[in-house]
Design a protein that fits this description.
alpha/beta, Histidine phosphatase family protein, His_PPase_superfam, His_Pase_superF_clade-1
Length: 174
C-alpha cells in the first residue's frame, strides 16, 4: 500500500484572512489538472482531504471519486498576520516544535499530535489500499517523519510546489 500525500494547489491569498480560510486560486487549476494527468496518483484509492477550502477544492479537481473530509488533517494553525519570512518562521517552528514560532501560531507539536493520529486512523482502516490525502506541506512533513522514523525534512518542505505529491510506502496490515 502506498500513501499519497498531496499538497494543495496555490491558494488565492487574502491579506488579513487566516490561510485556513483561503480558496484555491482559479489561476492554479491548470497546475492541479497537470498533477491529475501526470499518472502519479493511483487509479483506485481511498481519498480524504483536510477541511480547508483550498485542500477540498484541490481534491475536487484531482478525482471524480468522492472523498472524505477530515478536519484533523488541517495545516499548522497560523495567525492571519502576513509573514514576510514564512520560510524562516516555519524553520523556527521545526527547530522548537513545542513553542509557537510567532504570536498566534500553534506549536508544531500540537499540529503533529492532531495530524499524525488522524493519518494513522485512516491507515488502520484502509491499510490494504492506496490512500490519497490532500492537505498541507507542514502537516505532511510531520507525517512523513513519523512514518519513516526520520527527522522532519525542512528542506524538502521548502522545496514543495503547489500542488505537489509525496509518496510513502507503508507496510500492509497484519
Amino acid at each position: 500500500m502506498t500513501l499519497h500525500l498531496v499538497r494543495h494547489g496555490r491558494p488565492l491569498v487574502v491579506p488579513g484572512v487566516p490561510a485556513a480560510e483561503w480558496d484555491l486560486d482559479p489561476a492554479a487549476y491548470d497546475d492541479v489538472w497537470a498533477l491529475r494527468a501526470s499518472g502519479r496518483l493511483p487509479a483506485r484509492a481511498a481519498w480524504f482531504s483536510s477541511a480547508e477550502p483550498k485542500a477540498q477544492q484541490t481534491a475536487e479537481l484531482l478525482t471524480d471519486a468522492g472523498f472524505g473530509v477530515l478536519p484533523d488533517l488541517g495545516e499548522h494553525v497560523r495567525s492571519a498576520e502576513w509573514v514576510e519570512d514564512l520560510d524562516g518562521a516555519v524553520r523556527r517552528a521545526f527547530a522548537s516544535p513545542d513553542e509557537p514560532a510567532l504570536p498566534g501560531w500553534e506549536p508544531l507539536s500540537s499540529c503533529r499530535d492532531r495530524v499524525v493520529p488522524a493519518v494513522r486512523r485512516v491507515l488502520e482502516v484502509h491499510g490494504d489500499d492506496d490512500v490519497v490525502l490532500v492537505g498541507h506541506g507542514t502537516a505532511w512533513t510531520l507525517v512523513v517523519a513519523d512514518l519513516t522514523g526520520e527527522a522532519p525534512d525542512v528542506d524538502r518542505w521548502a522545496g514543495l510546489a503547489m500542488p505537489d505529491l509525496i509518496t510513502v510506502a507503508t507496510p500492509p496490515r497484519t
